[in-house]
């Protein structure tokens, strides 16, 4: 009897683990788009520090990301259980924050850009402060993106029991954090990998191939970081604007109407592009409004 009960228990555990694996796979597919934005944003956020400090900075942000999810997973489960109506407003606030950060970057570029030499002098004079600023900014951004990933994952298992929800959210949090920051670490060290390959001075065919690849990586690395910087800023608006539009039914319905109308005129392929363009537009406008509001508050505070 005891042996039969043990086998039944093992079978139940196996079925549960199989169900959790399937649900985790579904949740991972639903969050794949946000994961791409998360990668671009974080690679852009941790770029610009000294080469010997890149991996420590990535590790510091990864630890912050784990802490974010350690807070967000139980918080999401509690909110979903007791005050589910609060999830959308909280996400909209997070989306506005992302748009605000992106708009600040645009304002800095177009209206308050400092000469590169002056910027470099400031960074060199306070490397530790600059590094800490990068880490804090990346962790803040990660918090918003992690919240969206967790909410999307929670939506995929909303009808399941508490244990399944907790298991899926925990798996998604761990796997995606390791995946994102593992890739970020690889991206920021591309130039070091190229330098290592170039140093092979042997005259064998293999060494020549290594030097060729190394020179290619060294040439590609600066362009990659510039591309990621642009993609990261665009992702802030796209993710933030997407959160806002999904949370406000009028905007969401408007995007669907515009997308349907333009797709009918020019072809169904536009249905893949128009929503992203509109979300970016909403993100930019929302971000600029928040920047102006914050600037107004600072002005009033300084005059008081």
Structural description of this entry:
This protein is mainly alpha-helical and 304 residues long. It has one domain (2-303). Helix content is 87%, strand content 0%. The chain has helices at residues 2-30, 32-45, 54-82, 87-110, 116-125, 127-156, 162-188, 190-198, 205-247, 249-266, 274-303. Helix 3 (54-82) runs parallel beside helix 6. The N and C termini lie far apart (79 Å). The model is unreliable at 5-17 (pLDDT under 50).
Biggest sheet layout? none
- Give the number of domains: 1
Integer average pLDDT: 78
User: What percent strand?
Assistant: under 5%
Give a quick precis of the structure:
This protein is mainly α. It has helices at 2-30, 32-45, 54-82, 87-110, 116-125, 127-156, 162-188, 190-198, 205-247, 249-266, 274-303.
Chart the SSEs and their pairings:
Layout: H1 2-30, H2 32-45, H3 54-82, H4 87-110, H5 116-125, H6 127-156, H7 162-188, H8 190-198, H9 205-247, H10 249-266, H11 274-303
Helix pairs in contact: 1-6, 1-7, 2-6, 2-7, 2-9, 3-6, 3-7, 4-6, 4-9, 4-11, 6-7, 8-9, 9-10, 9-11, 10-11
């Amino acid at each position: 009897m005891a042996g039969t009960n043990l086998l039944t228990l093992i079978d139940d555990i196996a079925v549960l683990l199989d169900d959790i694996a399937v649900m985790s796979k579904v949740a991972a597919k639903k969050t794949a788009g946000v994961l791409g934005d998360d990668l671009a944003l974080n690679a852009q956020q941790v770029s610009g520090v000294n080469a010997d400090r890149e991996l420590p900075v990535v590790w510091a942000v990864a630890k912050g990301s784990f802490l974010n999810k350690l807070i967000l997973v139980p918080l999401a489960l509690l909110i979903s259980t007791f005050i589910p109506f609060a999830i959308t407003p909280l996400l909209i606030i997070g989306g506005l924050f992302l748009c605000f950060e992106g708009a600040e970057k645009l304002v800095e570029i177009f209206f308050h850009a400092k000469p590169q030499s002056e910027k470099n002098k400031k960074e060199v004079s306070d490397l530790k402060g600059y590094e800490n600023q990068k880490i804090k900014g990346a962790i803040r951004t990660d918090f918003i993106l992690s919240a969206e990933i967790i909410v999307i994952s929670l939506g995929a298992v909303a009808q399941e029991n508490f244990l399944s929800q907790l298991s899926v959210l925990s798996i998604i949090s761990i796997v995606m954090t390791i995946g994102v920051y593992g890739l970020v670490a690889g991206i920021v060290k591309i130039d070091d990998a190229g330098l290592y390959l170039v140093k092979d001075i042997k005259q064998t065919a293999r060494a020549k191939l290594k030097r060729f690849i190394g020179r290619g990586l060294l040439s590609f690395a600066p362009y990659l970081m510039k591309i990621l910087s642009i993609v990261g800023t665009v992702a802030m608006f796209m993710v933030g604007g997407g959160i806002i539009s999904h949370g406000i039914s009028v905007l969401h319905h408007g995007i669907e109407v515009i997308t349907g109308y333009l797709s009918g005129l020019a072809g169904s392929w536009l249905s893949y592009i128009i929503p992203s363009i509109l979300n970016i537009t909403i993100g930019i406008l929302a971000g600029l409004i928040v920047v102006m509001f914050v600037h107004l508050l600072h002005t009033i505070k300084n005059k008081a």
